[in-house]
Specification:
Blueprint lengths: L12 E10 L7 E10 L3 E5 L6 H8 L7 E6 L2 E2 L5 H11 E4 L11 H11 L6 H11 L16 H13 L5 E5 L7 H17 L3 E5 L11 E4 H4 L1 E3 L6
Parallel strand pairs: 3-8, 3-9, 6-7, 7-8
Antiparallel strand pairs: 1-2, 1-4, 2-10, 4-5
Helix pairs in contact: 3-4, 3-5
The structure holds adenosine-5'-triphosphate.
């Protein structure tokens, strides 16, 4: 009798956080996050007051910071507890990050900034083709690929940062307050481009912003204070 071969199922959960605790140092308060699960395709608007810990949480999810307690799984793989080199590899392959300041390398060209992300994820020769495809979808002209990142406007830098974050078709995109330097029209155009690209690839998005106007782009809104509690340090006198 022939039995149907069942393909290995891909995980539906992108992130699973359990019993997480993180403090910047022994004198600092700890962020405590008992549980947070994020399913594939969710688009989450994460908000909360200044200093509440939104960037800290994104950095933990990106594996840039490592919790002292608890675990973070990425696509069912241990992420926070694996070796640094393994975490760097998983981040490069599965996570795109857009930082507040975009963090482009100023003296490198636009194309080289994007190529660098593809290189870390060990993408082959097709990376340039993907890069140009993304630049077109983000409505940037071809000539800009050879320009140094330092010569771009804020709006252009922002779109290049998105292209760099999406070049490896990540399952998870983490975006930290990227629209603060833009006027209302540029901001709305940027949000539409970003979310259309994520829709096309079913990318899971966690988007941090103070701007309540941006919340309307997201069906799911999460207040950081609902997720995280703050534990004061034990002071030794
Ligand atoms: N590198 C660091 N070392 C020590 N403390 C830090 C560090 N980075 C952030 N913090 C502290 O952690 C807390 C949370 O900061 P975080 O930047 O995550 O907040 P946020 O919610 O993103 O704030 P904002 O909305 O103003 O960007 C703050 O009290 C901040 O002072």
């Amino acid at each position: 009798m022939l039995t149907a071969k069942i393909p290995p199922s891909s995980p539906t959960q992108v992130i699973c956080v359990e019993h997480l605790e993180y403090a910047y140092n022994k004198q600092a308060p700890s962020f405590v996050l008992p549980k947070w699960q994020i399913e594939k395709g969710q688009r989450i608007f994460l908000h909360g007051p200044s200093g509440a810990g939104k960037t800290t949480l994104l950095n933990l999810l990106a594996g840039i910071l490592v919790p002292q307690q608890g675990t973070i799984h990425l696509l069912d793989k241990p992420f926070s507890t694996c070796r640094d080199s393994q975490r760097d590899k998983l981040r490069a392959q599965h996570i795109g990050v857009v930082f507040q300041q975009f963090n482009l390398i100023a003296h490198l060209s636009v194309l080289d900034n994007i190529r660098l992300a593809a290189y870390f994820a060990k993408q082959g020769k097709q990376a340039d083709e993907h890069a140009f495809d993304l630049l077109h979808k983000l409505q940037l002209p071809d000539y800009i690929a050879s320009q140094p990142a330092s010569s771009l406007s804020i709006g252009q830098q922002q779109r290049v940062a998105i292209a760099r974050a999406l070049i490896n078709a990540p399952e998870l995109l983490l975006v930290d307050e990227p629209t603060s330097a833009l006027d209302a029209n540029a901001r709305d155009a940027f949000m539409s481009l970003l979310l259309n690209l994520c829709e096309a690839h079913n990318t899971t998005v966690i988007f941090v912003s103070h701007d309540p106007q941006l919340a309307s782009y997201f069906s799911q809104k999460v207040a950081l204070q609902e997720l995280v509690t703050i534990k004061e340090p034990n002071h030794v006198v």
